Amino acid sequence: MIRYEHPLNERIRTLMRLEDLFARVRHFAAQEAAVDHHAALAALFEITDVAARADLKTDLLQELERQKQVLAPLRANQRIDQAALELLLVETDAVAAQIHAQQGRAGTHLRDNEWLMAIKQRTAIPGGVCEFDLPAYHYWLNRPADERRRDLAGWIDPFVPIAAGVGIVLRLLRENGRAGRHTAHHGVFQLMLTTTKIAQLLRLSMSHELPCVPEISANKYALNIRFIGVTGFDRGAVFDGDVDFELMFCNL
Q1: Which CATH class is domain 177-250?
Q2: How far apart are the first and last CA of the chain?
């Protein structure tokens, strides 16, 4: 099976973009090669741009507090795994406290570093970080891998509470969903939405053997999915066959 996720509002889109970027940073920063560490730094610059929204920290803190208020009464529900619930509440408290303790907007420590901002500016230019453009950066990339990783860790650490908060919110969102089986006849599926089906995230699962991908569009009234055939890497026409899939509506 292959899963496609489709956020239905800008807030969830932002959190999912950050989740993807944090995963890239963690992967490339753990490698040895200079080219991997350049990729990690480039992803950090993207995080800085996405996280520059002044209300990101406020949104995360408000959502974490709201989830605590939802989860705390479940301590009286014997059908709930109390150990897992308590662990989640403790984790949420700790992450919220760490985010609250941070001063300024997320990524301020990078924006205040003139050397890093000079590199960031050049990354926007195709081939702009060649050694003749940024000799000091070329020097850094030729330092021992352990030294580069230490520097990267220092630049990544201030983002860790934000990454943890994003992870908690998206984990709770994905776990709070209603799933159903559906069939798109001749590659097309439409569903009229009611108040019971309003969601913040759609998760669609289908067989990876099918040579098509879903194109999802939705508003508060209707959901439309077209399965587009793929040949190699080319975008094709609407898939002519029937497509069985599972659809989950997720909400916080």
Answers
A1: mainly beta
A2: 25
Cβ pair 47, 22 in contact under 8 A: yes
The CATH architecture assigned to 9-170 reads Orthogonal Bundle (1.10)
Domain limits, CATH 1.10.3900.10, in the chain:
9-170
- Per run of 10 residues, the mean pLDDT along the chain (length 252 residues) is 93 94 97 96 93 81 92 82 88 93 85 93 88 92 96 95 95 91 94 75 94 88 90 76 94 88
For residue 130, the SS3 value is coil
Residues of the chain with CATH 2.60.440.10: 177-250
Cβ within 8 Å of residue 101, ≥6 positions away: none
Length of the chain in residues, anyone? 252
Residue 92 to residues 83, 209, 225, Cα–Cα distance (Å): 14, 39, 35
CA separation (Å) from 108 to 17, 49, 112, 119? 19, 11, 6, 16
Give 92-97 contacts, CB < 8 A, sequence gap 24+.
92/64, 92/67, 92/68, 92/168, 93/68, 95/64, 95/161, 95/164, 95/165, 95/168, 96/61, 96/64, 96/65, 96/68, 96/165
